Fold this protein.
Amino acid sequence: MTNTTLEAPQTTTARSSTHLSFPRVVRSEWIKLRTLRSTQWSFAIFVLLTVGFGLLMAVTLDTSSGPAVDTETQKSLTVMVATLGVNFTQLVAAVLGVLIISGEYTTGMIRSTFAAVPTRLPALFAKALVLAVATFVVSLVSIIVTALVTAPILSGQGIEGQLFDGEVMRALVGGAGYLTLIALLAFGFGAVLRNSAGGIASVLGLILVVPTVLQILAGITQAVWAQNLSAFLPSTAGALMYAVGDGSAAGGPPIGAIGAGVITLDTTQGFLVLLGWVVVMMIAAAALIKRRDA
Amino acid sequence: MIEIQGLTKRYGAKTAVDNITATIRPGLVTGFLGPNGAGKSTTMRTIVGLDRPDSGSVTVNGKRYAEHQNPMHEVGALLDAKAIHTGRTAYNHLLAMAATHGIGKARVHEVIAMTGLESVAKKRVGGFSLGMGQRLGIAAALLGDPQTLILDEPVNGLDPEGVMWVRKLTKHLASQGRTIFLSSHLMSEMSLTADHLIVLGRGRIIADAPVGEILALATGTAVRVRTPQAADLANRLASSDVTVTSVEGDLLTIAGLASAQIGEAAAQAGIVLHELTPLSASLEDAYLELTQDDVEYHSEVSR
């Protein structure tokens, strides 16, 4: 702290080459993402939970008592094992998504960010992009690793992985896609609320509490509107992305409750509904970030 | 060159900055002085676009800050030593800031060396003292080799060696033709560092003049006079340009006349003087006097 020098040596880079650009802002956000312990921990937990729960389910699965499992069920079980962890990692994705932006507001870092990128939106989108890519890659890798690691165990139970089956592959990628969109949804909440506790509470409320409340309500009253509303919630609609078959395996509408006027979504529709949530939150975040004082 | 035109900023019902117009010129260290809550930080924040003005405009070298291709090369700003994520190391913080403009690692190491942060560069910012935070903030401001440097209370929390360093650095950068704009509530520090002063009080500019002129205007001709015929002397000197204040029975403070003129006037009238002292106030006094009543001095000082 004592050897301070006065002279500003000429910079080694040519002046003309330094300027602001979107790829550079992305690079900056990537540095920010990887240099925080919270992100490193989050992604480590991601891998651990996905592989851990997959192994747990594969080991405890017992098909010996029943009849031989058909191909459809084999696919369904393969996907279920590989994506069981998603139920838990979605919480990590949600917390990470909020923290990545709210952490900048609570520490004041956002003022440094916006001073360097005064048009602001490139910083917001670069941050979202980096979060999305990192979340997608980490979740896809952990899901695929889980599928590969559990394949020999499941094989012993008479379940052949069918990993190269189109539907299975789509569901595995869908699981990673779901987590990515949940992270982005949370990011939108964090950007709008600018507060870690508020952001996390809102997102977890939306993906955990609201569906449960609606399910209970629908169960008691058989109200069609409650079932329909539930179908359009981010976690319910998004769950279709990593389900095979009728989607019932991964939290679709309860079987037997389907009555007249009840809407059921297919995989693509489920994806589009969740994407819609993300887009709406991102638009709100972008509009507010442009207008508000930092 | 920073040009502020009719800038007004309100926070709810409170007007933080009230229609101020000023030009901060290159090649000088311009000090921004004012009591807490006068609107200094708000003004500085609008320069780099962190706060949106309610009316008026601020340009840096002819353009709004956000319109520049190379913002960090136009303006380096330390607005808040705490505007840094506490979980990141100093080096990584600077690296991320530099990356937005494609500024290389070499420059990051340079600014770390310039600000004397080598020993703590790999430590998390959360454990930094205020002084280290200030140094890191200044390091970040210098990354882009800026033409204009804005520092909000830069010496806050710095040790004497650091204060000296900031003083030398700002003077040195100004001598290279850069625009330096720094705020402080330490008037004594300003008198040593700044060439030009803008004094702000309750969101308005009270004074905008070279340091020496502000001293002269606010205090130049005040004289303390002790005389048993105080009332007599006061009557004799009274005119529109002269302010006579009675301090106690036989003690007057007279502003607007030199001590020689007062002495001569007293001799002519046969008034006995016991004391005749020109008051050379410090910048501190000048500042306090200026901020006492901003409206009264507005027209006089800013001309």
